[in-house]
Amino acid sequence: MRKILILTVLSLLHSEVYSAKILAWTFFPSISHQMVFRPIWKELSLRGHEVTVVTPDPLNDPTLTNLTEIDMKVAYQVWKEIDISNFRRELMTVFEIENRFRRMHERIIHIMNETEEIQEILRKPENHFDLILIEALSPILYGLQHKFKAPLISVCSLGNSQYLTHLLGNSMHPALYSDILTGMFGKLNFMEKIENTYFILGSYLLNKLFIYPNADRIARSYFGQDMPYIEDVVKNTSLMFANVNPIFSDHRPLVLNIMEFSKVHFVERKPLEKVRILALPCEIIRQF
Ligand SMILES: *[C@@H]1O[C@H](CO)[C@@H](O)[C@H](O)[C@H]1NC(C)=O
Ligand SMILES: *[C@@H]1O[C@H](CO)[C@@H](O)[C@H](O)[C@H]1NC(C)=O
Ligand SMILES: *[C@@H]1O[C@H](CO)[C@@H](O)[C@H](O)[C@H]1NC(C)=O
């Protein structure tokens, strides 16, 4: 009897905690992208995980005690530095857009590195975090996986670029599936197939010969010169989540480590307030 009592007391004292230390790092200074990510950090923290987030759009909610946000609003300044007035498809080729995007991204990571809070994170030892979550579009941030020797999940606020999914083992036929940056959706007609193939080949060369070698050089300078080539680090991504609305998606084949999700940024629906509608006499209505 006593044994049972002791065991019961011991089992009550022993409570298992499954909370993980999570580092989430986003960079894109645009609330419409960050809206997709914010509910994820919030929910993880509410479920008891210790979440540290580097973000240009913090929630600043004092009730979320397990969520530490590092405010990187400063990233918005980069919009002012680069001229975005002609950041439009009608005025620029998609390659120019990709290149501008790359410059903006590198500049933001540079600015982030200069801040003391980020330096503090980068001083943390290997294995300090149990999981890294990043914004999928940043080739540089994948290097955090090497820095902290932790599994990495990337989250995309919109469908993924073909090059990135190709690195994750998900190559798609350019005549069948459009790249998100082309702005084309659904079944492609003959001319669209040609345009898409041209874009995907061009984008492949741009990424392979320029964007990724550049990202590799920069990621090494932040996360260690001993890092494997950045494309190999990207290939090591454990999981990629892509925010895709199933109604507008053209249902592409995906490998098992790329998963689509949607609607996390929807706010809970509140019932409409009851409003008293005055019944207008038909005579008055007819006058209008
Ligand atoms: C914080 O995490 C603990 C467990 O680590 C959990 O019990 C608590 O409810 C969490 N608090 C909030 C506000 O999410
Ligand atoms: C990152 O910031 C630290 C502190 O200011 C600096 O010593 C280091 O050189 C920076 N790294 C790069 C690659 O700029
Ligand atoms: C991939 O991840 C595994 C396990 O975390 C690690 O041992 C390996 O070195 C990583 N490889 C690259 C190229 O990052």
From TrEMBL:
<comment type="similarity">
    <text>Belongs to the UDP-glycosyltransferase family.</text>
</comment>
<dbReference type="InterPro" id="IPR002213">
    <property type="entry name" value="UDP_glucos_trans"/>
</dbReference>
<keyword id="KW-0732">Signal</keyword>
<dbReference type="InterPro" id="IPR050271">
    <property type="entry name" value="UDP-glycosyltransferase"/>
</dbReference>
<feature type="signal peptide">
    <location>
        <begin position="1"/>
        <end position="19"/>
    </location>
</feature>
<dbReference type="GO" id="GO:0016757">
    <property type="term" value="F:glycosyltransferase activity"/>
</dbReference>
<protein>
    <recommendedName>
        <fullName>UDP-glucuronosyltransferase</fullName>
    </recommendedName>
</protein>
<keyword id="KW-0808">Transferase</keyword>
<dbReference type="Pfam" id="PF00201">
    <property type="entry name" value="UDPGT"/>
</dbReference>
<keyword id="KW-0328">Glycosyltransferase</keyword>
